[in-house]
Design a protein that fits this description.
The protein is an all-beta fold and about 100 residues long. Helices cover about 0% and strands about 55% of the residues. It contains no helices and 8 strands. It is elongated, with a radius of gyration of 14 Å.
């Protein structure tokens, strides 16, 4: 295991190929923004993205997309303003 970037813990399978990344991240909401960009630093686009809200303010309707470097968490309505009030855990998987 090693740190892939921005709090992402990368795991390798038996032949040392990167297979998944996971982590926990917190962000502050301003009461207006609906999109939160979270760097995962894996350098590959995940084929499976699992994001779990771990705070009351993060537990609202959202969808997630990802690219080579970031996860994008987009809410249907802006979460309430607060400091580090949005907390998520995540698991990203990608082909080896």
């Amino acid at each position: 295991m090693n740190q892939a970037g921005a709090g992402t813990l990368a795991r390798r399978n038996f032949d040392d190929k990167l297979r998944e990344g996971s982590g926990r991240i917190a962000a502050s909401a301003d009461g207006a923004a609906t999109k939160f960009v979270i760097p995962h630093g894996l350098g590959v686009q995940p084929t499976l993205i699992n994001v779990t809200p771990n705070s009351k303010d993060a537990a609202a309707q959202f969808f997630v997309t990802a690219d080579l470097t970031n996860m994008n968490i987009t809410y249907a309505q802006p979460p309430p303003a607060g400091t580090k009030n949005l907390v998520w855990s995540y698991l990203l998987e990608f082909p080896i």
